[in-house]
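Key idea: predict the complex, not the pieces.
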Amino acid sequence: MANTYVKASILFQEKQNDQVYLIKLKGKFTGKPGQFYMVKLPDSDLYLPRPLSICDLDKEGITFLYQRVGKGTSRMASYKKGDFLEVMGPLGQGFFPISADKKIALVGGGIGIAPFLFLAKQWKNSIDLYAGFKGEPYFLEYFKNNVDKITIATEDGSAGYKGYIIDVLEYNEYDLILCCGPNMMMKNLQKRIGDVPAQFSLESRMACGIGACLGCSVKTAKGMKRVCHEGPVFLGQEVIFDDED
Ligand SMILES: Cc1cc2nc3c(=O)[nH]c(=O)nc-3n(C[C@H](O)[C@H](O)[C@H](O)COP(=O)(O)OP(=O)(O)OC[C@H]3O[C@@H](n4cnc5c(N)ncnc54)[C@H](O)[C@@H]3O)c2cc1C
Ligand code: FES
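Result:
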């Protein structure tokens, strides 16, 4: 299925808050933590599909956690149970696993927690989740039985530590740090972690999703790389962030 779109019906669409939705599509899907699917909205005037990370996978179907930010995600939020979407995937390289005796920190900024549920369910490591939000946290109850510890930070102080989640992360306690969130967060994390092994899941605007258009390329220490093909996960120390990030 990887490079063709297939139709999939919506099993449920659940609102988590005003901006965030959990949607599950019926079918036999595959993928690894950190990989993503391109999602097309039939009956819409939007030509380009939107990339969404695998949030969970089981024998019933695939789940995405997404935030309404623009035209596509707003339109998607209006779809109901039984409606169809078209999806292509799994795409990209997921997170690179390490041996199960190693301790891992998952660092998610806002909707950046999306790919971590599937990872926390699949990987056998000892895993702590660090989740940072601007305001009220969401979706964390799904992690409760799948990680050892959850640490929360909010910018407005509505829950957990008041401030940025990377300020409370104990870098040296972990063998590996995985991060997904706004570029500014990953850029600041990169400055602090020194040599602690890290992997960052990057976002970029995408058109084809399969490595053909080069539109999603980002700068790395090994040259320009396509987020959809060589990524979206890159070694944390290799990503080169722009000054404006
Ligand atoms: C590999 C990958 C995995 C992703 N996984 C998820 C996920 O699991 N859940 C989720 O909510 N979002 C995820 N995203 C981001 C998601 O694809 C975008 O939010 C979505 O495409 C926006 O579509 P739209 O039509 O609603 O917004 P548009 O109308 O296209 O844009 C609205 C605003 O969002 C900005 N924007 C749009 N796309 C991106 C992007 N990719 N990166 C940064 N800014 C963007 C635009 O510049 C604009 O300001 C992922 C992106 C990538 C590349
Ligand atoms: S989106 Fe076309 S190369 Fe990545």
